[in-house]
Amino acid sequence: MPDGYDRRTIIEHRSSKNRLDPFVPYHFLHEQEPGLTGSVETVNTIFLTSKECTYTCLMCDLWKNTLDEPLPENAILQQIDYALKRLPAADAIKLYNNGNFFDTKAIAPADYPAIAGRLKSYKRIIVENHPHLCNHSCIEFSKLLNGKLEIAMGLETIHPASLPKLNKQITPEDFKRASAFLQQHNMDTRAFVLLNPPYIVNPRESVDWTLKTIQFAFNCGVVRCTVIPVRPGNGIMELLWKNKVYTPPSLDMLEEVFDKALLMQRGQVFADTWDISFLSECSYCFEKRKKRLENMNLSQQIINNIPCTCRNKYE
Ligand code: SF4
Ligand SMILES: [Zn+2]
Predict the structure, then answer these.
(1) 151-193, pLDDT tens digit by residue?
(2) Helical packing angle, 203-219 and 251-264, nearest 10°
(3) Fewer CB within 10 Å, N side or C side of the chain?
(4) Rounded Cα gap, residues 224 and 222, in angstroms
(5) What would the pLDDT profile of 209-246 be if each residue is shown by its tens digit?
């Protein structure tokens, strides 16, 4: 990879993976999300236990909940059944496999009809996929569904020095092409955008590039952007932090990006609030501020900022 860390070095810095059962999803939950028409939709999310993604991105920690080998036959279907038996009815469903749904080593194309059969009651189906894997398989799967397929792709950043070093192996143009292809075939697209990816160390610049990346994603026609604060914890990120080419973002930064991205009024924006305690040093206001972000995710409206007297502003 250009002037960065290769796959071998990234893997060498890892700790061990979590032990997972190939017949049980490693997590599932029922939540709410705003629909595109303004109403609130219920969403079931199943985190499938799947084979590890082949891309090995620098900032990725999703490998922790993956398997090294392809799954036994029928395992994905059994996982979906396991979760659906325990989840209530919902408007939409996310099938996230910590990788790419259309990676044939993770989800066998032969399983698409049986998977689609289990999703008949859902009006929106969301899966994750890499821009390079947006091909005819997406169309085939989409045609099997009753509901509309939405494909979530990591755009990560359009920063010209950061993106090539993430090992994602895409350019912004690749993302644009993949989005156009999916939209032409009647699928919606969603972008994952990073806050503080490696190699953007100035906090002000980092906020600006996250906003530019969100603008770019909306220009590509995505209907939703999810902002993900980049966390340490995958091994190589600790080394990057030590080498001063990465710093964890702050809650202030996430709040600023979220407010400004909503003000763009180009589409829906979500702040990823999963495990974000690393963003704040203040235990007094953290939970309230996290709740504010969650409420904004649902309402898509800016809510009054929660003042923190101990806040170390990053400017
Ligand atoms: S493509 Fe996605 S799942 Fe795969 S390594 Fe990159 S960030 Fe992780
Ligand atoms: Zn505080």
Answers:
(1) 999 999 999 999 999 999 999 999 999 999 999 999 999 999 9
(2) 30
(3) C
(4) 6
(5) 999 999 999 999 999 999 999 999 999 999 999 999 99
Whether 313 maps to a domain, the answer reads no
Domain for residue 71, yes or no? yes
pLDDT 10s digits, 246-291 = 999 999 999 999 999 999 999 999 999 999 999 998 888 999 999 9
Distance 297 CA to ligand 1 centre (A): 24
Q: What's the CATH number where 169 sits?
A: 3.20.20.70
- The number of folded domains in the chain is 1
Query: What is the length of the chain?
Result: 315
Distance 191 CA to ligand 1 centre (A): 13
Whether 247 is covered by a domain: the verdict is: yes
Residue nearest to atom 1 of ligand 1 (CA): 55
Q: Whose CA is nearest to atom 7 of ligand 1?
A: 60
**Which atom of ligand 1 has the smallest separation from the CA of 156?**
7
3-state secondary structure of 43: strand
134 occurs within a structural domain: yes
Range of the domain at 274: 7-298
Give residue ranges with CB within 6 A of ligand 1: 53, 55-57, 60, 62, 98-99, 130, 154, 168
